Amino acid sequence: MTATAARSHIHRDNLLTRSLSFLSSQEVILFFVLVGLIVLVGTSNPRYVAERNFINILNGNAYIAVAAIGMSMVIISRNIDISVGSLIGVLGTLSGSLAINGYPIWMSWVVPVLAGALVGAVIGFLVAYLRIPSIVVTLGLLSILKGGLITITGGAWITDLPKDYFLAQIKTPPVSLLGLNLPEIPSPIVFMIVLTILAALWMRYSMTGRAIYAVGGNAEAARLSGISEKRIIMTVFIINGLTVGIAAVLWATQLSIIQSTVPAGLELQVITSAVVGGVSILGGIGTTVGAMLAAILLSAINSALVFIDVSPYWFRAVVGVLILFTVLVDLLRRQRSRASARG
Amino acid sequence: MTSSTLQQSDEMKSGVRLRAFLLRQEVVLFLMMMIAIFILTLGSDKFLTLDNLLNQGRFLTEIALVALPMTFIIITGGIDLSVGSIMGLCAIVLGYMWNPTGPFQWPLELAVAFSLLVGVLCGLVNGLIIVRIGVPPLITTLATLALYRGLAEGISQARSVRNYPEYFYELGQGTLLGVPTQLWMVLVFVIITAIILSRTIFGRSLYAIGNNELGARFSGIPVGLYTIMIYAFSGLMSGIAAWVFVSRVTTTRSDMGTGLELDAIAAVVLGGTSIFGGSGSIVGTVIGLVLIQLLKNGLALSGVTTDGTIVVIGTVLILAILINNYIQRRASAVE
Amino acid sequence: MNRKLLVALLLGVVMVLSFSLALPVAAQDRWDGADDLPVNPLDCPMAEGEAMPEATEEAPMDMPAYDGGQPTNAPDLAGQPIVLVDVPKLVGIGYFAATTLGQAQAAEELGNVTVTTDAPTEANIDDQIAVIDNYITQGVNGILFAANDPVAIAPVLTRALESGIHVVGYDANSEPGAREWFVNQAEFNGIGKAMVDSMVAEIGADGSFAIVTSTFTTPNQARWIAEMQAYQEKCYPELTWLETVEAQEDNVLSFNQATTLINKYGEELDGIFGMTSVATPAAAEAVVQAGLCAVDAANAAAGSPEAAVAVVGLATPNAMKPYVTGDNAGCVKSVVLWNPVDLGYAAVYVMRAVVDGTLKPGDATVEAGRLGTLSVVNGSEVLLGPPFIYTKDNIDGFDF
């Protein structure tokens, strides 16, 4: 793993390659796949592209896209977090418990986010300072959170939530812009887009953001150039905790009930979004924009499969093929740009 | 991260030091297991009985069968997340091919053999994608995790196949010389894999690949071939796990083996295999497997419910690695 | 580079081939989520005002012989304190929290029963088997269970019987020979009838509906759908069956799937069935957020009432109150369910009766505390009663 990373890093350091791969990037490819899918399904059933369904496609995986922001950074720094699904469950329950126990609504929205950051700090500390591999830490944490959630809630659902609690059901007021009537946009979509763009800008232009790529690409070189690897990894996991916290609040405030079971396979969906979005598991490359597009694409496929009457029995097989397909396209593209950079 | 790899590769310089290093790691784990057994015995007088321990072997089998090749794979710095899905697919294929009211109606032996072949094929596909196309193992197997499970669901159309002949259940439910039948199978595979890993050139090459893939390539190790082989082996073992599991639970369902990959990975890393590759052993994995199973069983017998048990297992996983890391660092500092 | 491309293409071809081979097979089947077992639809409702009483419907059926299993050398604990373990499909969903509550109530009333609930956190067949196995070793007097898979759980239950432990199921049955009794919350055809009748009452006998279920492999749901289908074909042939979607036991996924159905079918869709206690409230929420509640449509002067989408389903009352009597009152008119608290309660009483020897193979009734006398059906099943329908008039009287 180390060797491959180092090798590909040599190529990446080439300025020309870098700019080329930016132009024909995974984000652009994903965008076209998404558009292609929408056009294809939309022609067979125009309701698929109707405004309402379009917003639902964006909204459906918005919380996953938010969690994928932090996950992208974690993976870019050459770590992984497989506890996100359980953490979303725990923080969502925390949020709901605060709300039904009479705490102010804003607290039930903010406290889980801070708690997420705290958990992130603990993971970061164990990974960066005590040098336990992140997959081990989060594998352990996964069972601790999953079991702990049941122990504390006793398996009961949270119902009877106060009326103002439902953050994810708030919509933007209808706006008329340049004579166009913009639709009411649910808040998760706003969170998804704003946070993704902020994170992308931060990663591209801030010192710390760039240092994440450096640590993931080549930790040794990063250290030599004066970057504190430990501090960066710590930061990455705290940010991941924050985004998971926000995702958890969006998840919990979407419906009138909060389940005390952790959604099965949620962590895989978040990781899938990040890697399909072009975040290399070997660290060092990828962006949050790609992860967001991938999350939307997965949601669009889910919806499309209902629309075009594919047997739901085959849904997961289609998802698997899709992941392979996007990764293959990405690899071929990278090889070509590498080849042309050499030539 | 890289510094620990460097530290480890320092250790690799002499074979003697390597062995001493591994021995220590396993000794530490073994001591932890002894402490756990001691505490759990205090919790329930039903725990430390031959009947109970042998019976636990049945529950350990499927995880053990996939954890063995997983050790190989993690030693090379890879990972295989698709094992649970391969197990589900093999189980479905077994049932689908045999099903007396289905389209094929093969003899049971042939259906079993074919399902194992499908397992090998699945592993082979993983290996080919990883080696020939160059997709990282985590992404490859994440994709095939969805793909193989999807195929299992698609082929089965959510139908179970039941009512296998009585003799088929012997493997999963019967005993041989007083020991659960499948435990013999595990024992044989443990010995074979342990010998392969520690006594053959192939085994030692796996460590080399995990430590420094490029270096391994330059020193003439057929890295690609070996990598494909271990993923195919992983597929085969997942197929065997499916066979044992179907025989134990007497039915096939497309959701079989869900989450198996995490259980297997937990056992392997608890056993001291470095997730970054380059170090680890079968003995460690076996101790990891046994420790987790004993905790599950012993805590349940002491009256701890399932949710409490998984909290403890998660904590033990982190603590064990933490303690081991600390001891190993102290040990290398002393040297 | 070329070789890589070749391998990539080859893999692609293999995948496309395997799909194209498999898809025609899939296309022939309707993916409605029903199983293949024989169905037994109940009679259609009579003309208004002369609904047949339940009892006369069941009377003509011949009582089959007892087909349950028996424990070997079970100790005689009649009247003595017993320790039970309850192993539902999973912990963490409201439904099984309610059955646990009922068991605690029964245990308190009886005074000589201790019952603890322990189950995996996911509906996983292997984990459930392991949990039961551990309690066999630990040595309890009785096991109450709700099976994730009727066949897979049978060997471990048989082992329990062989160890002299009494075994009683509830909610989801195992193979009959692997347990002594099964407390049946409501017969499958009864649920099928109640669901379809409730839906027809809202959308008429010529409406169109879709179904949100957990997974197609969940035996209870598959059985109910099969019975609903049979009853609909028999009594309301004009109803249009659009499609069934899977949503696991995940409420956000259920919500998304229900929303997609609403968007796909538009005005064509008149009703949604929720087949699980997770799917039904989520489907109701999807209807509310799409602004398609029956009350919304009626209130909107311009809106045509045809646009409304009715939701009928299996659910627990607390989860459904917001849509029946709460903030979105009137969105859901009827929720079909037995009382899961009573189900758990009855399971403990049946177990006590088995241990005390007051419920023996061949008996036709059993006393179950506040529930009175319950009758035995299908050989070795204790029937809780006809399914209960929660409406705005009675739902506030329940708290679970």
Q: Any descriptors?
A:
heterotrimer; A: 343 residues; mainly alpha; ABC transporter involved in vitamin B12 uptake, BtuC; two-stranded antiparallel sheet; disordered N terminus; B: 335 residues; 2 strands; 1% strand; globular
List the helices and strands and how they pair.
The complex is a heterotrimer of chains A (343), B (335) and C (400).
Chain A: H1 2-12, H2 15-23, H3 26-44, H4 51-60, H5 62-76, H6 84-100, H7 105-128, H8 134-153, E1 175-177, E2 180-182, H9 187-205, H10 207-217, H11 219-224, H12 229-252, H13 266-276, H14 288-307, H15 315-342
Chain B: H1 2-11, H2 15-43, H3 50-75, H4 83-98, H5 108-133, H6 137-156, H7 170-173, E1 175-176, E2 179-180, H8 181-199, H9 201-211, H10 213-218, H11 223-249, H12 260-270, H13 282-301, H14 306-334
Antiparallel strand pairs in B: 1-2
Helix pairs in contact in B: 2-13, 2-14, 3-8, 3-9, 3-11, 3-12, 3-13, 4-5, 4-6, 4-11, 5-6, 5-11, 8-9, 12-13, 13-14
Chain C: H1 2-28, H2 54-58, E1 82-87, H3 94-110, E2 113-117, H4 125-138, E3 142-145, H5 154-162, E4 166-170, E5 181-184, H6 188-203, E6 208-213, H7 219-235, E7 240-246, H8 251-265, E8 271-274, H9 279-289, H10 294-299, E9 310-314, H11 317-324, E10 334-337, H12 340-356, E11 365-367, E12 373-377, E13 381-383, E14 388-390
Parallel strand pairs in C: 1-2, 1-3, 3-4, 4-5, 5-13, 6-7, 6-8, 8-9, 9-10
Antiparallel strand pairs in C: 10-14, 11-12, 12-13
Helix pairs in contact in C: 3-12, 4-5, 6-7, 8-9
